[in-house]
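ok trying again, last paste got cut off:
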Amino acid sequence: MGNPRVNPLNPLLGKIEKFEQSNKAALQYESTRVEWTLKRLNYDQARKQLYSQGTPGEYTFSEFGQVVSDFPMELFCDPRKGCIPIHRDQKATHPQWFKSFKKLPFVEGYLNKLSSTRTDPNKPLGMVFPRKGFAQGLLLHNGSYEDFVPPQGSCHLYKLDDGLHLVVQPYQAFVDQIKNSI
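nice, full thing came through this time. structure:
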Protein backbone atom coordinates (compact mmCIF):
# COMPACT_ATOMS: atom_id res chain seq x y z
CA MET A 1 0.00 0.00 0.00
CA GLY A 2 1.37 3.48 -0.91
CA ASN A 3 1.85 6.53 1.25
CA PRO A 4 -1.37 8.09 2.53
CA ARG A 5 -2.30 11.26 0.74
CA VAL A 6 -1.46 14.44 2.63
CA ASN A 7 -3.64 17.49 2.25
CA PRO A 8 -1.21 20.39 1.63
CA LEU A 9 -3.84 22.84 2.90
CA ASN A 10 -4.04 21.14 6.31
CA PRO A 11 -3.32 23.88 8.90
CA LEU A 12 -1.74 21.33 11.26
CA LEU A 13 0.92 20.36 8.73
CA GLY A 14 3.06 23.40 9.53
CA LYS A 15 2.77 22.82 13.29
CA ILE A 16 3.81 19.17 12.98
CA GLU A 17 6.80 20.08 10.85
CA LYS A 18 7.81 22.87 13.26
CA PHE A 19 7.58 20.44 16.19
CA GLU A 20 9.73 17.87 14.41
CA GLN A 21 12.26 20.54 13.42
CA SER A 22 12.46 21.92 16.97
CA ASN A 23 13.11 18.42 18.37
CA LYS A 24 15.84 17.89 15.79
CA ALA A 25 17.38 21.31 16.50
CA ALA A 26 17.44 20.57 20.25
CA LEU A 27 19.18 17.24 19.68
CA GLN A 28 21.63 18.83 17.25
CA TYR A 29 22.52 21.52 19.81
CA GLU A 30 23.54 18.89 22.36
CA SER A 31 25.27 16.71 19.78
CA THR A 32 27.31 19.65 18.51
CA ARG A 33 28.48 20.45 22.07
CA VAL A 34 29.44 16.80 22.67
CA GLU A 35 31.42 16.60 19.42
CA TRP A 36 33.09 19.97 20.08
CA THR A 37 34.08 18.86 23.60
CA LEU A 38 35.63 15.62 22.38
CA LYS A 39 37.62 17.44 19.70
CA ARG A 40 38.69 20.27 22.02
CA LEU A 41 39.99 17.83 24.64
CA ASN A 42 41.65 15.59 22.02
CA TYR A 43 39.71 12.55 23.20
CA ASP A 44 40.22 10.73 19.90
CA GLN A 45 39.62 7.21 21.24
CA ALA A 46 36.45 8.26 23.04
CA ARG A 47 35.29 10.11 19.93
CA LYS A 48 35.78 7.01 17.76
CA GLN A 49 33.97 4.87 20.31
CA LEU A 50 31.04 7.29 20.52
CA TYR A 51 30.84 7.60 16.74
CA SER A 52 30.76 3.81 16.36
CA GLN A 53 28.01 3.40 18.97
CA GLY A 54 25.70 6.34 18.31
CA THR A 55 23.69 7.82 15.51
CA PRO A 56 25.55 10.64 13.72
CA GLY A 57 24.31 14.04 14.85
CA GLU A 58 22.46 12.60 17.86
CA TYR A 59 25.14 12.32 20.54
CA THR A 60 24.22 13.14 24.13
CA PHE A 61 26.17 14.08 27.24
CA SER A 62 24.88 10.88 28.80
CA GLU A 63 26.69 8.89 26.10
CA PHE A 64 29.69 11.20 26.52
CA GLY A 65 29.80 10.31 30.24
CA GLN A 66 29.81 6.61 29.40
CA VAL A 67 32.78 6.81 27.01
CA VAL A 68 34.70 9.38 29.10
CA SER A 69 33.99 7.96 32.56
CA ASP A 70 36.83 9.88 34.24
CA PHE A 71 35.48 13.30 33.18
CA PRO A 72 35.30 15.41 36.36
CA MET A 73 31.68 16.51 35.93
CA GLU A 74 28.39 14.88 34.97
CA LEU A 75 26.95 16.98 32.15
CA PHE A 76 23.53 17.36 30.61
CA CYS A 77 22.10 19.81 28.13
CA ASP A 78 19.07 22.09 28.15
CA PRO A 79 18.74 23.54 24.63
CA ARG A 80 15.76 25.59 25.92
CA LYS A 81 13.51 24.25 23.16
CA GLY A 82 10.33 26.25 22.78
CA CYS A 83 11.49 28.92 25.24
CA ILE A 84 12.27 32.56 24.70
CA PRO A 85 16.02 32.97 24.08
CA ILE A 86 17.71 34.08 27.29
CA HIS A 87 18.99 37.35 25.78
CA ARG A 88 15.37 38.33 24.98
CA ASP A 89 13.71 37.01 28.14
CA GLN A 90 12.80 39.82 30.56
CA LYS A 91 13.05 37.34 33.44
CA ALA A 92 16.72 36.73 32.61
CA THR A 93 18.08 40.25 32.19
CA HIS A 94 21.39 40.81 33.90
CA PRO A 95 19.96 42.68 36.93
CA GLN A 96 17.73 39.64 37.59
CA TRP A 97 20.85 37.49 37.98
CA PHE A 98 21.60 39.51 41.13
CA LYS A 99 18.04 40.08 42.38
CA SER A 100 16.48 36.63 42.02
CA PHE A 101 18.95 34.07 40.69
CA LYS A 102 16.83 31.04 41.64
CA LYS A 103 13.96 32.39 39.51
CA LEU A 104 16.00 32.62 36.31
CA PRO A 105 14.43 30.52 33.54
CA PHE A 106 17.33 28.07 33.31
CA VAL A 107 17.96 27.58 37.04
CA GLU A 108 14.72 25.76 37.90
CA GLY A 109 15.42 22.90 35.47
CA TYR A 110 18.92 22.58 36.84
CA LEU A 111 17.75 22.42 40.45
CA ASN A 112 15.18 19.76 39.51
CA LYS A 113 17.88 17.64 37.88
CA LEU A 114 20.21 18.22 40.83
CA SER A 115 17.65 16.82 43.24
CA SER A 116 16.72 13.85 41.03
CA THR A 117 18.55 10.56 40.59
CA ARG A 118 21.88 11.03 38.88
CA THR A 119 24.43 8.71 37.32
CA ASP A 120 27.22 9.64 39.74
CA PRO A 121 26.15 11.69 42.78
CA ASN A 122 29.83 12.12 43.78
CA LYS A 123 30.58 14.25 40.70
CA PRO A 124 29.41 17.84 40.30
CA LEU A 125 26.48 18.30 37.94
CA GLY A 126 26.71 20.72 35.00
CA MET A 127 24.05 21.95 32.59
CA VAL A 128 25.03 23.38 29.21
CA PHE A 129 22.55 25.84 27.71
CA PRO A 130 22.59 28.36 24.85
CA ARG A 131 23.20 32.07 25.35
CA LYS A 132 23.76 34.60 22.59
CA GLY A 133 27.33 35.87 22.60
CA PHE A 134 28.82 32.59 23.83
CA ALA A 135 29.69 30.27 20.94
CA GLN A 136 29.41 27.07 22.99
CA GLY A 137 26.84 28.39 25.44
CA LEU A 138 27.00 28.71 29.20
CA LEU A 139 27.48 26.12 31.92
CA LEU A 140 25.64 26.12 35.24
CA HIS A 141 27.24 23.75 37.76
CA ASN A 142 27.69 23.02 41.44
CA GLY A 143 31.41 22.31 41.19
CA SER A 144 34.18 24.29 42.80
CA TYR A 145 34.92 27.55 41.06
CA GLU A 146 38.56 27.13 42.08
CA ASP A 147 38.76 23.91 40.06
CA PHE A 148 36.68 24.81 37.02
CA VAL A 149 37.01 28.58 36.44
CA PRO A 150 40.31 29.68 34.84
CA PRO A 151 42.47 32.05 36.93
CA GLN A 152 41.66 35.08 34.76
CA GLY A 153 38.14 33.83 33.92
CA SER A 154 34.84 35.28 34.99
CA CYS A 155 31.77 33.63 36.42
CA HIS A 156 28.64 34.21 38.45
CA LEU A 157 28.77 32.54 41.85
CA TYR A 158 25.55 32.03 43.80
CA LYS A 159 25.33 30.59 47.31
CA LEU A 160 22.15 28.68 48.09
CA ASP A 161 20.62 28.59 51.57
CA ASP A 162 21.87 25.04 52.17
CA GLY A 163 25.49 26.08 51.58
CA LEU A 164 25.66 24.77 48.02
CA HIS A 165 27.41 27.01 45.48
CA LEU A 166 26.18 27.39 41.90
CA VAL A 167 28.52 28.70 39.23
CA VAL A 168 27.60 30.05 35.79
CA GLN A 169 30.48 30.36 33.35
CA PRO A 170 31.15 30.09 29.62
CA TYR A 171 31.23 26.43 28.59
CA GLN A 172 34.29 27.01 26.41
CA ALA A 173 36.27 28.42 29.36
CA PHE A 174 35.28 25.38 31.44
CA VAL A 175 36.48 22.94 28.77
CA ASP A 176 39.70 24.88 28.32
CA GLN A 177 40.31 24.73 32.08
CA ILE A 178 39.79 20.94 31.99
CA LYS A 179 42.17 20.72 29.02
CA ASN A 180 44.84 22.69 30.90
CA SER A 181 44.54 20.41 33.95
CA ILE A 182 44.92 17.16 31.95
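cool. The first strand starts at residue 74 and ends at 77. The beta strands are 74-77, 125-131, 134-141, 156-159, 165-170.
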